[in-house]
Specification:
With 99 residues, the protein is mainly alpha-helical. It has one domain. 58% of the residues lie in helices and 0% in strands. It contains four helices and no strands. InterPro entries: Saposin-like (IPR011001).
């Protein structure tokens, strides 16, 4: 469900929908899905919207990638080769502790 919500937001941003219209739609969906009250949904958007909307406009993230960043594992497993990496930790000498 979170992925669908993020996809709706992404589509509105990419369509060039105004910030105020995105906020109106966000608050409407937030209340309609009984996520929170109108006051809380509106306040949430007021705090995070000015940061999230421009960041999403400037990014190349797909909906699933953005969903994973925002909601974590609830969006399903994300497969991205950029997330696959290893760190080699060299051996280092240890000292023995004596009593």
């Amino acid at each position: 469900m979170n992925l669908k919500r993020v996809n709706i937001l992404r589509n509105e941003i990419l369509a060039g929908t105004s910030f105020e219209e995105i906020k109106r739609k966000f608050v409407t969906l937030c209340v309609r899905f009984e996520i929170e009250t109108e006051l809380v949904c509106s306040g949430f958007f007021d705090v995070y919207g000015p940061k999230v909307v421009p960041a999403y406009k400037a990014s190349n993230l797909a909906s699933k990638e953005a969903c994973s960043l925002i909601f974590g594992e609830t969006c399903g497993e994300l497969e991205n080769e950029l997330h696959e990496w290893d760190v080699d930790i060299p051996d280092f000498p240890t000292t023995q502790l004596t009593k």
